[in-house]
Amino acid sequence: MKILNFMSQETKVSKRRILLLAGISGVANSMLLVILNEAATQLRDGDIETQLFLQYLLTFLLFIFAQRTSQREAVAAVEHALQQVRIRLADKVRRSELRTIEAMGGIGSYSSLTQGANTITQSVMYLIVGVESLLVLIFASLYLLWLSPASFIIGITLISITITILVLHYQKTFHELSLAARKEGEFFELFTSMLQGFKQLKLSRRKSDAVFADITAAANETSRLKSHSNIRLLEDILLSNVAFYLLLLLIVFMLPTMVTVYEEKLFQVIATILFMMQPVYRISAAFPNISKTNVAITGLYALEEKLDSDQSVHQESPPLPFTEFQSIAINAVSFSYLDKQLNPVSQIGPLHLSLKPGEIIFITGGNGSGKSTLLKILAGLYKPEEGNLALNDTPLKVSDYNAYRGMFSAVFSDFHLYSRLYGIEDCSEKVVLKWLTTMGLNHKTEFKNGQFTNTNLSTGERKRLAFIVAVLQDCPILILDEFAADQDPEFRETFYKKIIPELKTQGKTIVAVTHDEQYFDTATRVISTNV
Ligand SMILES: Nc1ncnc2c1ncn2[C@@H]1O[C@H](COP(=O)(O)OP(=O)(O)OP(=O)(O)O)[C@@H](O)[C@H]1O
C-alpha cells in the first residue's frame, strides 16, 4: 500500500505502532460485542455479573484509547510526511535549471502538491479505520464461527465474494481516477490561461468562445470520469448492503429450518452480523480512498522524478575562489530549449560575447535572434551544451554556477516584483528613498518595515521599481532586457544620460538589450545578435 510506504519513507514515525494500535482498537471493539452478547444471555437467565460490567468498562476504555491514539498519530504522521515532501519539492524547484521549470509549464504541473496532498490527508483516516474494521471483521467472524459454524460458512462465503468484487472494482476505479486527475490538471491549466489572457478574451467574443469551448470540454470529460468512478463507489456500497441483507435472509429465514441446535443462538448471530455490517461498509469505503491516495502519491513522486531528472537539483555549490572578476566570455555556446516532456527543441547558437569590468554593453538584434537567451546564458541561467562560459579565462565547472550567478542582478522582460527586499533585508530606508526619488517613484510608493507600501503601479513604473530592487542588490553586473522600452521619452533620456553613467561611475558593469539607437553612444560597445 503506497500510503504506508509513503509514511515510512517520509517520517520516522513507526507505522507498525500505528497499525498495532488500530488493530488493538479493532479487537477491543469486537470484544465489546462478545461482552454485550454475554450480558444479554446473563440477563435472560437472571442478573448480570459485576465482573462483566467491569470488563465492558475496561474494554471500552482500551477501545477509545487505542482508536484515538492511532488516529491522532496517523494524522500527525501523514501531515509531517506531506510537510517534508512540500519543503523538499519547493527546494528542488528552486535548485532546478530555468529551462526545466520553463518547460514544465505553469501551476497546473504542480497540482499534485495541492489537490494530491489534500487527498492523502483525507485518506489516511480511511486507512486507519479500514485496518481497525478489518480486525473487527476477523474477530467477529471467529466469534460467529464459535456461535454457529453454519452461519460462519455462509457469512464468510458471502463477505469474501463481496470483498473480491470490491477489489476488482478497485483496480478499475484506480485507473479511472488517474485519468480524471490528469483531466482535472488540464482543466486547471486552461482556467489559469483564461485568467492570464483575460484582456484578450474580453476583447474578442470569438476567442473567448473558443477558449471556453476547450475549458468546457475538459470540465465535461473530468466530470464524466469522476461521476463514473464515483458511481462505481456507490455501487460498491450498494453491493455490500445487498450482501448483508442476503446474509440475514439466509441465516434468519432459511438456516433455522435446516439446523436444529441453532435456534437458541439466533439472537447473538443476528447481533454479530449486524455488528459486521459497519466494518464492511468502512472497508469498502477505504478501498476507493486508498486508490485515490495511490494516484495522489504517484503524482507527487512523478513530479519529484521530473525535477530529479535535472542534475542541478542534486549539486552542491561551493563558493567561487575569487572576489572580483577580470573577464567573462561566452565561447561558441550552443543551447537548446526543452519541450513539456523535457526533450530538447529549438537549438540556439553558437553564441559569443566577452565582458570586462566597468563595460556598458548594449545588445541589439531582430526578434527571435537570441538576445534574451544570450543574457540568460551570460547570467548562468542556461548552461551551455557546447562551448563554454569562462570566468577570468577559466571555463566554469557545473558546480561553480550557483556562486557565479550571484554576481548578477537583472530586470528581465518577465520580471516578478516582490514587495519585500528578499535577500537584502538590511537595506536602509534612506538608500531606498534616494533611488525611489531618482526613478520618480517617491510619490507612488514608500519603503516601510522592509517592504514597498504599493506595487500596484503602471507597467513602466513597476519596471522602474524592479530596476531599483536590482540595483539595491549591489551586484557587480546588472542585466537589463529592454528595460527602457516601456519608459516615457523624458525618463528614457534621464535613464541613458544620467542613471547608467552614474552606475558606471560606481564601477558597475551593465549588459542591456535595447533598440534605442539614439542612446547607443552611452555604451562602450554595441553588439548585434543578427546573423
Ligand atoms: N522557452 C522557449 N522554448 C522554446 N524555444 C524558445 C523559448 N524561448 C525562446 N525560444 C526560441 O529561442 C530563440 C531565441 O529567443 P530569444 O527570446 O532569445 O530571442 P530575442 O532576440 O530575445 O527575441 P525578442 O526580440 O522577440 O525578445 C527564438 O527562436 C525562440 O523561438
From TrEMBL:
Gene Ontology cellular-component annotations: ATP-binding cassette (ABC) transporter complex
Domain ABC transmembrane type-1, first and last residues per copy: 18-292
ABC transporter domain location: 333-531
Domain of life: Bacteria
Topology in membrane: Multi-pass membrane protein
Location in or out of the cell: Cell membrane
GO molecular function: ABC-type transporter activity; ATP binding; ATP hydrolysis activity; peptide transmembrane transporter activity
SUPFAM superfamilies to which the protein is assigned, alphabetical: ABC transporter transmembrane region (SSF90123), P-loop containing nucleoside triphosphate hydrolases (SSF52540)
Entries under PANTHER family matching the protein: ABC TRANSPORTER ATP-BINDING_PERMEASE PROTEIN YOJI, HEAVY METAL TRANSPORTER
Name this protein carries in UniProt: Cyclic peptide export ABC transporter
Organism: Leucothrix arctica
